[in-house]
């Protein structure tokens, strides 16, 4: 089946016509004027040079309405200039009530409730890939790479902006150097461009070029920026040397650490950029939100390392790149414990591999071909054993030298479609596991943007000592993408040997799933609602080998936002019995969970007010069973002033009588009825002295207990049923758990120069895990504080160096 399906994809793609959009006649255009003396970037639009450019206004509403002209009281005008160094943008934004402008001070990439001006630049005018620059009314900068509707705020470049306010409104000046952009290598540049003004206190958003929300994606409605020609951009070379010093105190021991390294960005030409990190230091990355994990799958964590979040949109296509694999737990970490000899103890077993260096090259040609190459090398790691009698030590390698590679080719066409080829490869030195995955993707819209055809064909190859495993997976979907009423169907397939987990993340394989959906939504306000959407969906999940039904379900959900920015919604679903092939941890075995109903709801109040809140809850009820699940999340927030915001979150989870894996004994899989309760408290606070300096507090305490009923043990039968047995849990095989973790980060961040910053961080961590599941919250907290705490104080300084500034300095 897999080979035929792959050929079907190729045949399907070859039968597609070359689609094109008829949007040119509705696109506005703006001509940039070349200058020799740049304006002073101070927010005051009084430089004579600005008069060379003809201002353009005529903004129209995109939210909540559709195409209404901006009122004269809030007229907005933009101008664009350029030289051989950068492009310059000025915006004048009138406001009849300037005291109502929301001026919340925030740090970079955090807009919160400030009003803002936004520029989208698509230097290839391909309808999808663009760079976003935002300046708030208080002067905070934000920048992101856009791929479709996905915003990647991990993308950070160096550019300049200033704002000014008076009794007539507010003004912004922006300088975007060519080093912050990638563009075709040709004489005359024609770029896609969009300007957006967010008037937060009016709950309104206006755009320069009209966006039809009912058809296609916003990036396909950019206007045109013309006039940029014969530019001679400077060398795009930026250096980010860093130094860090840290003192770590734990259990009576104090450790000092000093690091220095370098990040580098080099423009290979106008279109392609090389990013490198040499001797990387990730000591100040945010902590992972670790939880008690008793399931068959690993816990997924977000990426907090800047190098792996910035400009990675090409490498993330197809979902084959889980960046936390690079520098993750050694593949032999768990095996090291199992290989203890008599009278031995482990004195060292690193749970992370060290990243030695990494680089990525990415860009796009003038014909819309995106090319990306990623490479990273990690160091080898060892577990160290000591004989408790002789004192002799030995080592066992847990992770060899490893090389990680990604190669991507992504061809955009017709400003709404793409086809992609991707290959990922992990090679480990010696007789260890290697992995290779290749994928073909297509994402095609028809001429009127009313239908989307998307699909993937992926092949994995895992090379184990003496064994090779090849797997295949595919996806195909057809969706109506125009109008209020929409619908779609999809199919997903993977055989039993599909495995991308050397560099990707995939929990399950061996499936053959079908799904459908239909929805109705509005694009203009109706009555008291600015937006609402109703969805109905269904699914039928099957095992590929053997061919068995896993689950059939259907349901619906609803979302609405009122004119007062109060949002609410919910979901309700009904499901047949569910055959879980992964909870038993045994090949070709499954446990059957009873049919169930799942429901959820949420409400979210207006964030513009000083006090706002979010409430979310979900509940699952399993029929003919005592098994149930309940979750409640409360998230109030209070803005004490324009400088100080505090957000508290409380989350409570209670799962009762869940049939769960316990152990395997004499070819018998043992289950037990588990009660699991979790309480999480977190606090996030931000105090901004100005847009360049601020204090940030992040605190999280997570407590969870899992307790198995003494008379609730059973054995798993071949048909997925559970039969009660007598099972004695002792100190060695006790499945109960009591998990407690405390994290506190307090940091001071100072951007002392463009692209340069100093961060002083204090970190406090306490962790405890035991079998005392009968303890209450207070007793468990006392046990946690009885454990030694880890205190860490670190200072990291990064300095931005532009090669051109150094060159000009020496020349002068």
Explain this structure to me?
The chain has 812 residues and is mainly β. The chain has a domain at 32-229: Sandwich (Immunoglobulin-like). The strands form five sheets. It has a 24-stranded antiparallel β-barrel. It is globular and about 85 Å long. The termini are far apart. The model is unreliable at 1-22 (pLDDT under 50).
Question: Which secondary structure elements does this structure contain, and how are they paired or packed?
Answer:
Elements: H1 2-14, E1 29-31, E2 33-34, E3 60-63, E4 76-82, E5 86-94, E6 116-122, E7 129-136, E8 141-147, E9 150-152, E10 160-166, E11 169-177, E12 188-199, E13 204-207, E14 223-229, E15 237-250, E16 253-267, E17 272-278, H2 306-309, H3 333-338, E18 344-348, E19 355-364, E20 369-378, E21 381-387, E22 393-399, E23 402-413, E24 417-428, E25 434-445, E26 451-464, E27 467-480, E28 485-494, E29 511-521, E30 529-543, E31 548-562, E32 567-575, E33 578-580, E34 591-593, E35 596-604, E36 611-622, E37 628-639, E38 644-665, E39 668-688, E40 693-716, E41 722-724, E42 737-753, E43 756-770, H4 777-785, E44 790-798, E45 801-802, H5 803-811
Parallel strand pairs: 1-14, 2-4
Antiparallel strand pairs: 3-13, 4-5, 5-11, 6-7, 6-12, 7-8, 8-9, 10-11, 12-13, 12-14, 15-16, 15-44, 15-45, 16-17, 17-19, 18-21, 19-20, 20-23, 21-22, 23-24, 24-25, 25-26, 26-27, 27-28, 28-29, 29-30, 30-31, 31-32, 32-35, 33-34, 35-36, 36-37, 37-38, 38-39, 39-40, 40-41, 40-42, 42-43, 43-44
Domain Carbohydrate-binding: 41-194
GO biological process, one term: carbohydrate catabolic process
Domain DUF5916: 233-810
């Amino acid at each position: 089946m897999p080979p035929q399906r792959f050929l079907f994809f190729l045949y399907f793609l070859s039968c597609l016509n070359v689609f094109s959009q008829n949007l040119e006649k509705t696109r506005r255009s703006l001509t940039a004027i070349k200058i020799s003396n740049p304006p002073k970037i101070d927010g005051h639009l009084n430089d004579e040079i600005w008069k060379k450019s003809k201002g353009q206004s005529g903004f129209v509403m995109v939210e909540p309405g559709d195409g209404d002209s901006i009122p004269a009281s809030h007229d907005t005008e933009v101008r664009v200039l350029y030289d051989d160094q950068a492009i310059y943008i000025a915006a004048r934004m009138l406001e009849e009530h300037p005291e109502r402008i929301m001026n919340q001070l925030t740090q970079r990439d955090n807009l919160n409730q400030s009003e803002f001006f936004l520029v989208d630049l698509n230097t290839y005018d391909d309808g999808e890939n663009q760079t976003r620059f935002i300046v708030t009314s208080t002067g905070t900068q934000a920048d992101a790479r856009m791929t479709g509707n996905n915003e990647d705020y991990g993308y950070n470049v160096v550019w300049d902006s200033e704002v000014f306010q008076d009794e007539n409104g507010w003004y912004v000046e922006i300088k975007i150097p060519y080093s912050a952009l990638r563009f075709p290598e040709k004489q005359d540049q024609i770029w896609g461009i969009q300007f957006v003004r967010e008037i937060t206190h009016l709950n309104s958003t206006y755009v320069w070029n009209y966006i039809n929300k009912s058809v296609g994606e916003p990036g396909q409605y950019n206007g045109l920026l013309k006039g940029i020609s014969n530019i001679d951009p400077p060398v795009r070379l930026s250096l980010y040397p860093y130094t860090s010093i840290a003192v770590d105190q734990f259990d009576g021991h104090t450790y000092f650490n000093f690091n220095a390294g370098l990040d580098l960005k080099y423009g290979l030409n106008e279109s392609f950029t090389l990013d490198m990190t040499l001797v990387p230091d990730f000591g100040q990355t945010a902590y992972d939100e670790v939880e008690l994990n008793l399931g068959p799958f690993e816990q997924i964590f977000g990426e907090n390392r800047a190098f792996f979040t910035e400009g990675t949109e090409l490498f993330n296509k197809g979902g084959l790149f889980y960046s936390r694999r690079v520098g993750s737990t050694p593949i032999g970490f768990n095996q090291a414990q199992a290989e203890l000899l008599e009278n031995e103890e482990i004195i060292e077993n690193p749970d992370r591999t060290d990243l030695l260096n990494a680089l990525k090259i990415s860009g796009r040609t003038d014909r819309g071909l995106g090319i990306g190459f990623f490479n990273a090398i990690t160091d080898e790691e060892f577990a160290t054993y000591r004989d408790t009698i002789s004192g002799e030590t030995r080592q066992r390698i847990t992770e060899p030298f490893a090389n990680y590679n990604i190669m991507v080719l992504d061809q955009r066409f017709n400003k709404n479609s793409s086809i992609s080829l991707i290959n990922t490869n992990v090679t480990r030195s010696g007789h260890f596991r290697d992995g290779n995955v290749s994928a073909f993707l297509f994402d095609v819209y028809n001429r009127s943007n009313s239908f989307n055809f998307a699909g993937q064909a992926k092949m994995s190859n895992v090379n184990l000592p003496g064994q090779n495993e090849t797997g295949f997976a595919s996806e195909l979907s057809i969706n109506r993408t125009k109008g209020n009423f929409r619908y779609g169907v999809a199919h997903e397939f993977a055989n039993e040997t599909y495995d991308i987990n050397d560099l990707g993340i995939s929990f399950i394989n061996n499936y053959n799933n079908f799904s459908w959906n239909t929805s109705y939504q509005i694009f203009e306000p109706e009555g008291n609602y600015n937006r609402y959407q109703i969805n109905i969906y269904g699914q039928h999940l099957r095992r590929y080998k053997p061919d068995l039904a896993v689950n059939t379900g259907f349901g619906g959900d609803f979302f609405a936002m009122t004119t007062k920015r109060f949002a609410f919604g919910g979901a309700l679903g009904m499901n047949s019995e569910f055959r879980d092939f992964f909870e038993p941890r045994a090949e070709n075995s499954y446990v059957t969970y009873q049919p169930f109903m799942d429901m959820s709801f949420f409400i979210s109040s207006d964030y513009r007010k000083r006090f706002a809140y979010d409430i979310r809850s979900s509940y699952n009820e399993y029929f003919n069973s005592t098994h149930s699940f309940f979750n409640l999340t409360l998230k109030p927030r209070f803005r004490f002033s324009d400088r100080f915001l505090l957000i508290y979150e409380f989350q409570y989870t209670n799962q009762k009588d869940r049939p769960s894996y316990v152990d395997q004994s004499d070819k018998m899989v043992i289950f037990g009825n588990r009660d699991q309760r979790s309480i999480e408290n977190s606090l996030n606070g931000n105090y901004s002295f100005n847009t360049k300096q601020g204090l940030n507090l992040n605190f999280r305490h997570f407590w969870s207990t899992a307790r198995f009923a003494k008379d609730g043990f059973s054995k798993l039968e071949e048909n997925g049923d559970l039969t009660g047995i007598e099972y004695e849990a002792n100190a060695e095989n006790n499945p109960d758990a009591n998990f407690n973790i405390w994290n506190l980060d307090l940091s001071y961040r100072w951007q002392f120069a463009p692209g340069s910053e100093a961060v002083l961080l204090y970190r406090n961590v306490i962790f405890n895990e035991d079998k005392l599941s009968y303890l209450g919250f207070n007793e468990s907290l006392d046990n946690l504080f009885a454990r030694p705490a880890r205190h860490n104080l670190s200072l990291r300084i990064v300095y931005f160096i532009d090669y051109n500034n150094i060159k000009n300095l020496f020349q002068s």
